[in-house]
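re the bet — no i am not wrong, look at it urself. input seq straight from the record:
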Amino acid sequence: MSHSGAPGSGDPGTAQCSADGPLDPGRSAVEAVECDSARFVNLSHTSGGVQPTYLVLTDSDADATQLSLTDVLSMPEIQNAVAYFGADTESVRVRTQSGRRVALEEHVEALAERSPDPAFEFGGRRFELSVVLG
């Protein structure tokens, strides 16, 4: 569900959004906004010039391997991506601290190594995961 954007935000297409995915968000979410079918969740405050890391979750129709609740909850970035992955959402981009990049990459790689499929499934939704630098 969307709410009106902040006055003077300069981007009339962006609005605050609430979690409507298959589980609740973690306590680490600072802000969540949406623009059309994309959502942007911020788990860190301003990085002071340090390049942030993003977990990108994208909708997929590919064959998928079921993730357990433990798989999803073990990384706050994945938990929040899934929490904001609502029915009309095509992608969720979760911003986190640059120091979390290695752990996040290793976790996503470990999930991929266990899976014969290119995508994952949780709560009836299929998606792909990637870690990118901002």
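see?? The two ends are 27 Å apart (CA to CA). told u. also DSSP finds three helices and eight strands in the chain. so pay up
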